[in-house]
């Protein structure tokens, strides 16, 4: 697994671009700030700012990433494992936590504030996917479901896939209890769980490690799994964190879109 290091933006804003991003595919993990000085928070959901302000913020950020705001696809995320195919722009109330498409220009977007945003790219079959993977989605292996969906819909070979894991809460800050630990232990992801020293009944869980295990078990090559290596709780100055900020936390966005005419 390789770390992402390509940070875009002049003033600590915008975000991190996966190594596979380029003319053929636009992809970005956005930070919480607009690329301005002084930095200005940009909640990309409508929870805190309302729908009009959220749309304006998304359009401004997407434009800098080379993505058309009119091509955006959003779903109602419910911490589940449902992955849907999308063929047209939507800001739907449809419940899902993952999307896949092979339509050029269509921008799949995930909103997060500690959960892991995961972007998938198949350069051979020209298809992309995006997943919202909190502990529930991770335990239910939503990334595996996205890979299976891309295989079934587009003929994707998992060995051709690139998988990028964006900023999320990490093991350093992600303490869970016995109830969550028991769910993790019931899956092949137990290696991503460790007991917390000096705190009986408490554990630390690594979402990126668990997602990597899932992707590699599906056949993704280890050197094509990329990790931002950034904790949302530790880097709360640049990223929203629900665990650190509670209900005051906005949402940052991850987006991926196939290039048009490439």
Automatic annotation (TrEMBL):
It catalyses: inosine + phosphate = alpha-D-ribose 1-phosphate + hypoxanthine; S-methyl-5'-thioadenosine + phosphate = 5-(methylsulfanyl)-alpha-D-ribose 1-phosphate + adenine; adenosine + phosphate = alpha-D-ribose 1-phosphate + adenine; adenosine + H2O + H(+) = inosine + NH4(+). Its cofactor is Zn(2+). Belongs to the purine nucleoside phosphorylase YfiH/LACC1 family. GO terms for molecular function: copper ion binding; hydrolase activity; S-methyl-5-thioadenosine phosphorylase activity. Signal peptide: none annotated. Keywords: Hydrolase, Metal-binding, Transferase, Zinc. CDD domains: YfiH (cd16833). InterPro entries: Cu_polyphenol_OxRdtase, Cu_polyphenol_OxRdtase_sf, Cytotoxic_necrot_fac-like_cat. Purine nucleoside enzyme that catalyzes the phosphorolysis of adenosine and inosine nucleosides, yielding D-ribose 1-phosphate and the respective free bases, adenine and hypoxanthine. Also catalyzes the phosphorolysis of S-methyl-5'-thioadenosine into adenine and S-methyl-5-thio-alpha-D-ribose 1-phosphate. Also has adenosine deaminase activity. This is Purine nucleoside phosphorylase.
């Amino acid at each position: 697994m390789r770390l992402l290091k390509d940070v875009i933006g002049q003033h600590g804003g915008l975000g991190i671009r996966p190594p596979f991003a380029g003319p053929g595919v636009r992809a970005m993990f956005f930070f919480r700030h607009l690329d301005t000085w002084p930095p200005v928070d940009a909640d990309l959901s409508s929870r805190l700012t309302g729908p009009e302000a959220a749309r304006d913020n998304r359009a401004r950020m997407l434009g800098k990433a080379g993505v058309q705001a009119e091509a955006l696809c959003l779903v109602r995320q419910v911490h589940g494992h449902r992955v849907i195919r999308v063929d047209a722009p939507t800001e739907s109330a449809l419940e899902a936590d993952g999307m896949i498409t092979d339509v050029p220009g269509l921008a799949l977007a995930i909103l997060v504030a500690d959960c892991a945003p995961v972007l998938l790219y198949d350069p051979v079959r020209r298809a992309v996917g995006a997943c919202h993977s909190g502990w529930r989605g991770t335990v239910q292996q939503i990334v595996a479901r996205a890979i299976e969906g891309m295989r079934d819909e587009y003929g994707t070979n998992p060995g051709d896939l690139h998988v990028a894991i964006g900023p999320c809460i990490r093991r350093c800050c992600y303490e869970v209890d016995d109830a969550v630990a028991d769910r993790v232990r019931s899956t092949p992801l137990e290696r991503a769980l460790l007991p917390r020293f000096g705190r009986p009944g408490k554990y630390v869980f690594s979402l990126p490690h668990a997602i990597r295990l899932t992707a590699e078990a599906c056949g993704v090559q280890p050197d094509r799994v990329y990790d931002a290596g950034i904790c949302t709780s530790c880097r709360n100055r640049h990223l929203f964190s629900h665990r650190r900020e509670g209900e005051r936390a906005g949402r940052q966005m991850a987006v991926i879109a196939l290039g048009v005419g490439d």
